[in-house]
Every structure is written in C-alpha cells, then in structure tokens.
Amino acid sequence: MSDVVVSTQGLTRRFGENTAVNNLDLEIHTGQIYGLLGPNGCGKTTTMRMLTGLLTPTSGAIEVLGRSMPEAAEPLKNEIGYMTQIFSYYRDLTVLENLRFAAEIYGIPVKSAKERIDELLHTYDLTTNIHQLSGSMSGGQRQKLALAATVMHRPKLLFLDEPTSAVDPETRRTFWEQLFDLVDQGATMIVSTHFMDEAERCHRLAILQHGVKKADGSPRQLMEDLQADVVEVEGPDLRKVKHTLDGQPKILSTAQVGSRLRVLVDKSEPLPVDMLRAKLGAFPSLSLAPQRPNLEDVFVSATRGPEQ
Amino acid sequence: MISPRRIAAVLKKELLQLRRDRMTFAMVIMIPLIQLLLFGYAINTNLRHVPVALVDQSQTELSRTLAQIVQATQVVIITEQLTTPQEAERAITESRVRAALIIPPDVSQRLVRSPSIGLGPPNATDQTSSRPIAHWIVDGSDTMVASAIKSLRTMPLTELLKQPPNRQVPTFEVTLYFNPEQRSAVNIVPGLVGVILTMTMILFTSAAIVRERERGNMEMLINTPIKSIELMVGKIIPYIFLGLIQVAIILGLGHVLFDVPINGGLGVLLVVTLLFIIASLSLGLVISTLAQNQLQSMQMTIFVLLPSILMSGFMFPFDGMPQPVQMIAQVLPATHFMDMIRGVVLRDASLYELRWGILWMIGFAAFGLLAATLRFQKRLG
Fold first, then answer.
1. What are the strands of the beta sheet with B50-56, ordered from one edge?
2. How far apart are CA B323 and CA A246, in angstroms?
3. Is the pLDDT of residue A103 over 90?
4. Which helix (H) or strand (E) is A83 found in, with range?
5. Chain A interface test: which of B19, B211, B220, B376 (most A C-beta within 10 Å)
6. A112 interfaces chain B, CB cutoff of 8 Å
7. What is the ipTM of this complex?
8. Is B3 an 8 Å CB contact of chain A?
9. Residues above pLDDT 90, as percent of chain B
10. pLDDT at residue B362 is higher than 70
11. What pLDDT was estimated at residue B125?
C-alpha cells in the first residue's frame, strides 16, 4: 500500500440546490493529523461522512486505505474509527458498559477485550469513574470515553468531528497529546475543527469555505505563504480607526484584539506601515508595528473571497 | 456472517437501558393491569339500567303497574316523572334520559283490545282495535340503546292481569357454547391481550430505534461493523419477554378477577401469542425506519392501534363489517390474533384449527422484518 491513506478527486455533494462540498481534492498521507478547518456549515462533516461511506458523493472519486468508497464501506468499518461531533455512545450506560458494548460490537475476542478495556481506561484516565453513567460526566470526560470507544479496535484511520468543541482548554491539551500518541502508534487522523489553536497542531490543513478548499498545506507553510502583511495599530479610538480602514483598497481585513487593531494589508503593497500611516493621518497618536502572521490571519485571508 | 455476539451485545445494552428506564418498565406492568381492571368492569355489551322518563297520562292503578313491570325488566330505570310528551322530548334532547315511556289516557281501553293478552280474537281489519297500549320515544342515535328499548316492544303483558303467561313455544332452540352466561368479560379479556400487545409492542420497538436516531447513537452504530439484521433482532428480543409478561398479567388476572376460563393448552397459547408479539414488533421496526422522531412513531402507532381496536373484532363483531372492510381488517395482525386467542382461551382450539391465522402471522412477521432490514440503511443518504 502506498503512503497515501485517503485521496479524493473532484469530490462533490449536493443537497438539492445547495452544494455542500464542491470539487474537493484531498491527499492525506499516513501518520498525519490532517485538519479540516472552516466555519460551521462549510462542508467538514459532509466530507467526513463521504470519506467513511455514510454519504454517497454526487460526483467524484474517493479512495480510502487503497479501496474505493462508498463500495468498500462495510469491510473498512473494522479499520476506521469515527468519533462523532455529539457524544453518540449511550448516556444511560456506564463507562464500563459502553466500552464493553464497543468491544463486543467490534468483535474483540472475549479474552483480549478485558485487557484492552483496562488499557483504554488507563490511557484515557477513566479508571476512577468506570461505574459512572456517561450522561452524568463532564464534557471533557465524555469526549475521552468517546475516543476510548472509537479506538477500541485499533483503527488505522480515525475521523474526529470537532472533537473538542465542548471541552475546556486544559482537557483539549491532554486530548491532543493522546492523539499524537495514537499517531505515534501508526494511526492517521482527519480532524475537523473551527478552533485556530487546534488547527495549528495539525500536520497539514485544508481550509474549507462553502464546500470549496481555499488553502492546503502545513500550518507553518500556510503562514509563510500568506499573501498579506500584518500590521498592528495601537492607540485611542480604535473603533473609529477600524471604520476608516474598512473597505479601503489593499486593506484585506481589520480585527480588534484587545487594545490593538490587527490589519491585513495586501502583499502587493511594498510599504504597508507607511501606507497605513498615510491613510490614518487624522489619528496622530497611533503607533504602528509589523507583526508575524498567525493562523487566524491565514484563515481570514483565505476565506475573505467572494461568497458563492 | 451474522454474529451472535453482536446480537447479544445489543440485547445486553437494551436490557441495561430498560433497567434504568423505570417509567417504561412501570408502563409494561401498569398498562395491562389498569386497562384490564378498567375494561373488564367497564365494557358491558348487555345494556342495563338505561335512564328513561315516564309520562303517565293515565294515572291509574293499571298505568302504575305497567311502569313497574317495565322497570322490572332491568333494561330501563325510570329516573323522571313528566307530564307531557313535549317535556319528555326536551329531557331526551338535554340528555337527561335516553328514552321516555308515554302511557296514554286510554291505556285501559287499549289493553282490553290488545291481542297480547289473548282476550278473544282481535279484529284484524279494525285499526282501532289493536293499537299498542303505550308509546316509547327513544334517542335512536346510539344503536345499542335503541335496540335494548326495542327489545321491550313485545314484552309479555299477562302479568298485568295477574294471569299465568301463555306458554310460548320458541321457534328455535339455542345452545350457547363457551360463554353460556353471556358475560362480556369472557370476550373482552382475551381480546384485551391483543389490544394491549398491539399498543405496547409496536410503540416500544418503534420508539426504541427512533430514540437511537434522535440521541445520535445511530451515527455511532452505522460506523461500526454491526449489520442491520443484528441490530433489529437484538432490539426486539427483550420486548418479546416483556410482551409475554403482559399476556401473563392479563390472562392471569382475568382468570382470577373475571373468572375468564383458560380452556386451551398453554403450549398453543404460547405459540399464538409469541407469533403475534413478533408480528407486532416487526411492524414496530418498519415504523421506526419511517419515523424521524418519537412523536412521529407515536402517531403512526396510533394509526395502527385504532383500527386494531375498532376493526379487529375486539369491540364490534367482525362479521358485521362489510366485505371490503373485512379485507382491510385482515391485514392487521390484531384481527387474526383476536380470533386465535379467543379460540385458544375459550374454545380450546388446536394449532391445526388455527393454522391459517398462524401461517398469516408468520408471513406478516417475516415480511415486516425483511422490509425493516432492507429499509434500514447504514447510510445517511
């Protein structure tokens, strides 16, 4: 098998008039965490559902683990794990009961199932609440349980649909450490998210908007390739400054961050700071400084294109 | 390959959930218990004590005795004494009474000429000589009430004259099998098994699957190697046992409280009820693949439940329905079951005697299970 775990060509899915995913080409290599970054409704979940064979594409080709989808959906269930956006194990079962259920459904042999469950309880720090109903646990614990159940059968390919939207930053941190452990053990992952800090941890990212891929690459590469300069403006009357700049040529976006205004200026402008200073003559007490671009800048400039 | 282990996993999970869902568990017991008590006592097709008014325009010894004899039949009970027929009509309109007996002023003359007392031959050509002695006005909208009063039309009057009644020789001799005392409960209680099983079995299964969809569990399940048939079978097995518990409650209590006999063999009874439970469960599964949420599954259950009560022969005799309706009613498992359970419990019918119903029930269950399995796609679209 080649290094490529998932590849799609021209993947498209329409729901009536609405095109959820439009002509998407993806190539995901083994041992990567591949992020799908985009706002709600940009086609992340639809893409994942097509990649796992739950939805049939309107057009386009999908190959997963060397087999074409959705035809090979059933045989591949044993090699794929899918963690849904909303906790989808049973809230009225305990942690242990849910894990046992997963082990039985995935046909883990009875002897090794007990060991595997113990191992997972340990890895995901669930040993203290094995008899707690999963519905009564905190969001973070519940996500850990969901991950434990999802990797029960040691899938080669993991899909995680917004895994940490509902958990605190601390839990998100440990959760990602666990994902990297899984990658270390040979898993490949596709993670959808709308959090920049989460996207930044991925090996590679695709930025989606309205079902179209707007950018694709490693977070560092995306930041380096950004077709804009970042200038931070500090001083009084920032709201007025923002309104002065908004809509001006070469100003890609303005966003206030605390007491500073972050301005994206098109790369074609050779002297962005001087250009801004000229435009802001009416505000003499401002200080302007160039900044390194971050992922949010990449996201903003990638998704600011015309609406479809 | 169907995996028994996966079926067992679903079954175990279902039992665990059921154990924690106290309300559902309580309903399994309470529905048959309460409905048996209510319907066993409430439903009575032998109408008695219909409230009526009396308009006695004669006010004689004779008219008072006549009213007493009418009341002694126990079909009616006189709750009001009125003076004019107009008042009686108003009382019927206001629903204070269902009917009124109007005894005319000339009741004694009419009685003398009445052929029913047999005082000389009546003159058939003379209109006035053979008029009825009194007049009922009846709210005929309820046919059962109306026919109860109509049964009084030919009430013997000989007692009025303190004469021994003329010996009447019936045209036919009638022997009543299986329910000689004509108690409604004997017919109602076995039928209640069918109604309650229809309601609970269809509702439980359809809601059980739709609930998984509503709570998002289905999205997890379709990402696992489980097959739809494994999911379906694992889901219905616990409800088969719940159904049998309900049957035991209804027939057991029906036997103790209402003296409903259980004449048939328990083996035959088990086969018949198991088949009906499985047929109902498979119908519930089909509903679950159609309904998007629990409310819809509830509505569809009621859509099946109402004809199962009204058209199956539970309340109204199946034979009285027009042919096309009978054909529609025979689609329902409940219709066949009503006949079969009464057959086993009351008539001690054997499996061979019930073969057509049994075959039909097997066919229905197999078809339902197949349809549900095919309709249940492990896909979202």
1. B76-82, B50-56, B99-103, B135-138
2. 78
3. yes
4. strand A80-83
5. B220
6. no
7. 0.82
8. yes
9. 26
10. yes
11. 54
